[in-house]
Automatic annotation (TrEMBL):
Region (Disordered) location: 1-90
Protein known as: FAD-binding protein
Coiled-coil annotated spans: none
A Pfam family matched in the record: FAD_binding_2
Lineage: superkingdom: Bacteria
Biased composition (Basic residues): 38-55, 64-82
UniProt keyword Oxidoreductase present: yes
One example GO MF annotation: steroid dehydrogenase activity, acting on the CH-CH group of donors
Native source species: Pseudoclavibacter endophyticus
Taxon lineage: Bacteria, Bacillati, Actinomycetota, Actinomycetes, Micrococcales
Database matches in SUPFAM superfamilies: FAD/NAD(P)-binding domain, Succinate dehydrogenase/fumarate reductase flavoprotein, catalytic domain
Domain FAD-dependent oxidoreductase 2 FAD-binding: 98-556
A biological process from GO: steroid metabolic process
Keyword Flavoprotein: yes
Length: 595
């Protein structure tokens, strides 16, 4: 039995040493790395605090509190909570927690770190068997504005320039306020923040629609980024349960609530696990379940025009729209659900259990794209979801192919987990895919390759010769007829030659749950639903539609991290911990009270 202040607590859980509360529920403990008790500040600089009310609400700090960085503040503690770890999450039964999070991708883990740093207890539930969501299989790039890496490379950038690029592409449906706040905060609150956990931004690229290079890539891509964030979350005492799917969400009124803060209106969540159900009682809930780009039915419901493209889906395995349905069940609203971001470099994957799933191939800078006539039709350097996807879509009803030679084949990467190992390409798995996939053709000559993919042999040979000889044919020109740069071009010359069948791949959803600037879910009248927050792709990266109709590369993952942090800070605040996002992070001033 556990002893607490000299009195016996009965009914302790023999596995974890935790005791149930008066209702017989196990309570998730204080999330604090190392379990050490915070030392009080002494003397004149000791932070002044208002006393707790009879309901146990912690008052707001006085203006004289020292303005330390939020990550340097020691979290407040309460005697009835204690450390939890993944092993201490109950197999079945009930559990109480300050902040519950569903989804362990970029937004969910960022929210967890922020809530833990504020002093709240946190439990994260992930429906899949492995954490990381769509972020862990992504390239990991984030749009960052005004970074030290840009400065070292002599790149002159500014929030105003980035905002203009953003709105020019996203159009009138983009959330201008969220976009402005992101570009102003991105370098500090995404880039530098991630560096504190060991993330290293290795290079920076200029993608379509950007005036300057600002797409920063971390070492080992999304795998390296999420590995660092997951380690930081666990080091703080955060608990994460995988293979745990949220099945029901309800709001319940609890005694003692005050103005949406503290233990008042709360959330009840049923989590399905193998062998039973966990009933979670939380003061705050962060929904970070990702988009629905891995659910073909939902993709075609909102974009029926894509049915003719024989599209494949290829986001994270848990991106099925479950979080959207849960939020709608309590009165939350959606926006921009038809804004689905597709990439042109998808290919059907015979290893997938469901035939509608595809795999993304990338890192083939020398490839050319041909249509059913054996001719090029696009600048292949613009391979993103904007003009690249539209170009492939324009070749229907015929197929499009990416053509590479032997030297490019050994550099090819497949983004899905079966073809990666610790964030690096698994060359043996990729080789098996190229050998056995019916959507890949390889031949010792271009004539034989043309026969295998059903395009005119003479046309393919002429296309490759024209591409390889563009420098000589267009003397003095910087680019070919499609606008692709001639300098530094790799010729397609080393046999054997390979053709990869190209399909549109639904990868991201740019719309989702509507929220305010505190990431609070709002109803159809724009009123916040107390205790419920949404962040990341389930909320269109931030706010419901931060990008609008189209997106600059890096404005999916970057805003997901930022909105996760904002949601985590305000979720902890609603549970009685911390000062919320504005005070903690120092973004904005004066009337900037909502973010």
């Amino acid at each position: 039995m556990l002893q607490r202040r000299g009195s016996r607590v009965r009914g302790a859980d023999c596995r974890s040493g935790r005791a149930p509360d008066r209702r017989g529920h196990l309570r998730a403990g204080r999330s604090r790395a190392g379990g050490e008790r915070p030392r009080r500040r002494r003397g004149r600089h000791r932070p002044a605090r208002r006393p707790r009310s009879r309901a146990g609400r912690l008052g707001s700090p006085r203006a004289t509190r020292p303005r330390l960085p939020h990550y340097a503040r020691r979290p407040l503690t309460r005697p009835h909570t204690r450390h939890v770890s993944e092993g201490e999450v109950p197999g079945t039964g009930a559990v109480d927690v300050d902040v519950a999070i569903i989804g362990s991708g970029a937004a969910g883990i960022a929210a967890g770190i922020e809530a833990l740093d504020a002093g709240a207890s946190v439990l994260v539930f992930e429906a899949e068997s492995d954490p990381g969501g769509a972020a862990i299989i992504s390239g990991g790039g984030c749009l960052l504005v005004g970074t030290s890496l840009q400065a070292r490379l002599g790149i002159r950038d500014s929030p105003a320039l980035a905002f203009d690029d953003w709105m020019s592409l996203g159009g009138p449906t983009a959330d201008a306020e969220w976009a402005r706040r992101y570009v102003e905060a991105s370098a500090r609150e995404v880039g530098v923040w991630a560096e504190r956990f060991g993330v290293e931004w290795t290079d920076i690229v200029q993608h379509e629609g950007n005036s300057v290079p600002r797409w920063a890539r971390p070492r080992l891509g999304g795998f390296g980024l999420m590995r660092a964030l997951l380690a930081a979350f666990r080091a703080r005492g955060g608990a994460l349960r995988t293979s745990a799917s949220a099945e029901r969400l309800a709001l319940r009124a609890a005694a003692g609530g005050d103005a949406g803060r503290g233990p008042g209106r709360a959330v009840e969540l049923d989590i399905a696990i193998r062998g039973g159900t966990i009933r979670v009682h939380a003061t705050s809930l962060v929904v970070a379940t990702g988009g629905f780009a891995s659910n073909l039915e939902l993709v075609l419901r909102h974009r029926p025009d894509l049915a003719a493209a024989d599209i494949r889906v290829g986001s994270g395995p848990g991106a099925t729209g479950r979080g959207h349905a849960l939020v709608e069940s309590i009165g939350g609203t959606m926006t921009n659900l038809d804004k689905i971001w597709c990439y042109p470099y998808g290919i059907p994957d015979p290893r997938e259990a469901m035939p509608e799933h595809g795999v993304a191939f990338r890192r083939v800078p020398g490839n050319i794209w041909i249509n059913r006539r054996g001719q090029r039709f696009h600048n292949e350097e613009l391979s993103g979801g904007m003009s690249g996807a539209a170009a492939v879509l324009g070749q229907l009803p015929g197929r499009s192919w990416a053509i590479i030679d032997a030297g490019m084949t050994v550099e090819l990467e497949l983004a899905n987990p079966p073809y990666q190992r610790d964030g690096r390409p698994d060359r043996s798995a990729i080789a098996r895919f190229l050998e056995h996939s019916p959507h890949v053709a390889t031949a010792p000559t271009l004539d034989e390759l043309a026969q295998r993919i059903g395009v005119p042999a003479a046309a393919l040979a002429a296309t490759v010769a024209s591409y390889n000889g563009a420098g000589a044919a267009r003397r003095g020109a910087a680019a070919d007829e499609f606008g692709r740069a001639i300098a530094g071009r790799r010729p397609i010359a080393e046999p054997p030659f390979t053709a990869l069948e190209m399909r549109l791949l639904a990868r991201k959803t740019l719309g989702g749950v509507r929220t305010d600037l505190r990431c609070r879910v709002v109803d159809d009248k724009g009123r916040p639903i107390a205790g419920v927050f949404a962040a990341g792709e389930v909320s269109g990266m931030a706010g419901g539609r931060i990008n609008g109709a189209a997106a600059l590369e890096g404005t999916m993952l970057g805003p997901s991290l930022l909105s996760g942090r904002v949601a985590g800070a305000w979720a902890a605040h609603a549970a009685g911990f911390g000062n919320g996002w504005r005070v903690a992070a120092g973004i904005g001033s004066g009337g900037d009270a909502d973010a």
